[in-house]
Amino acid sequence: MDSKLIPSILLALCLGAVTVNAAAADPELLLVIKNHRFEPTELKVPAGQRVKLVVHNQDSTAEEFDSHDLNREKVVPPGAKATIFIGPLKAGRYKFVGEYNEATAKGVIVAE
Q1: What pLDDT, in 10s, does the model give residues 35-88?
Q2: Residue 35: which domain range?
Q3: Buried b or exposed e, range 15-29, using 16+ CB within 10 angstroms
Q4: Residue 101 sits in a domain of what CATH number?
Q5: Which one of 13, 45, 85, 95 is most buried, by most CB atoms within 10 A?
Q6: Residue 48 Cα to chain centre, angstroms
Q7: Stretch (H or E) spanning 44
Q8: Is residue 104 part of a domain?
């Protein structure tokens, strides 16, 4: 092999790897906690694919994202954001609550 081609081949391989990694990024969804409620109360996600869920607590008190269906718990301090990876999920409905305000903080993730 011509030694002058090696840098070009390496560059092409590196660029290909960057493209593959960018395409493989997990979809990101935003879930807001405001007035002790989740907004939106229903999130749709693609079945069979891992998803990055960003929970932004806009309240002045902490809240815990809690889902037995998803096997996830995460305390989100006031004014902070937390990242929770879920899935890949089978098609279906997965309930979640705000453990500190279960009467008002309720929601569901729908995988389709």
Answers
A1: 999 999 999 999 999 999 999 999 999 999 999 999 999 999 999 999 999 999
A2: 26-111
A3: eeeeeeeeeeeeeeb
A4: 2.60.40.420
A5: 45
A6: 14
A7: strand 42-45
A8: yes
3-state DSSP helix/strand/coil percent for the chain, to nearest 5? Answer: 20, 45, 35
Q: How many domains does the chain divide into?
A: 1
For residue 16, being part of any structural domain is answered with no
Confidence of residue 21 (pLDDT cuts 50, 70, 90): very low
Examine residue 19 and state whether it is found in any structural domain, yes or no: no
- The whole-angstrom separation of Cα 17 and Cα 24 is 11
Question: Which of the two residues, 82 and 1, has the higher pLDDT score?
Answer: 82
Per-position DSSP letters for 66-111, written without gaps between them: EETTTTEEEEE-TT-EEEEEE----SEEEEEEEGGGTTT-EEEEEE
